[in-house]
Amino acid sequence: MAKKVSSLINDLMTGDSSSSKTKTADLTAPQVNESAQVPASEGDRKPRQKTEDSPKWSFLTDMDGVLIKEQKPVPGADEFLAELRDTGAAYMVLTNNSIFTPRDLSAKLSLQGIDIPPEHIWTSALATAAFLDEQNPNGTAYVVGESGLTTAIHEAGYILTDTDPDYVVLGETRTYSFEAITKAINLVLGGAKFICTNPDNTGPSPDGILPATGSVAALIMAATGKEPYYIGKPNPMMMRSALRAISAHSESTIMVGDRMDTDIKSGLEAGMNTFLVLSGISDASSADKFPYRPTKIIDSVAAIVGKTQDPLSVLESDQISENSIR
Ligand SMILES: [Mg+2]
Hints:
six-stranded parallel β-sheet; alpha/beta; binds magnesium ion; five-stranded parallel β-sheet
């Protein structure tokens, strides 16, 4: 597992698809670069990356409201993912959730009836680790978060410490400790740079809402007067690092999401075509409330099944109001 994120990050650092043949090798084939020294294991697998033989189109897709809703697969999600697998398309499933490692998340999703291999899951924790590694390799950080975040940052080559760290990194947890927040506040006041995995203020729960990372960041901000830099959606940084992880180019990638203000906005800003699905939080009139529009508005990912190699031919939802600005 230690190899996985560090090799992913290595890929992120080394770049574009055109320059690296080794990254495009069959996942089961022996590696021909220095990583050949490391025995292959489940955790060492890389996401399927775009190669010259790959289908033209790549996909980034949001998870909640697009593939999963209320802990059940969205109808058509399985077929959509199977088609991406079968055609060899490069794809990555994105989530702002930083609690779980991709492997844990993959296992959880599998219990909910959806098969997404860990190497095709890109969390805000992985994006944060990639950002830190790019900005300040082998640095130090004080991390308030759960294993998804601590593992990613540790595997990026960081030392986790509460003594004069370069960064304070805040992610999501279900057990925020007053002591840890007090420590974070004092380290930020002492000069540590303040990074937050994602800006979401709340998350859903069966009993109502849960305060999420953005709410705790607001507490630290109030106490320190320092604003964090947020990595997850809607920061297009999250999209760009995911694109690099699969060696895909924005102009031939579709971002599929259910929120205009995060998925569609950041997809647009990262230069991708964007599909808004109506299977999650948005309804047919949602797009009208924003000064930008998705490339297409579709009922759900079921509409893309059979068309992943020609996604711009997908039919839009017939729920779109005739009064919508087209
Ligand atoms: Mg969503």
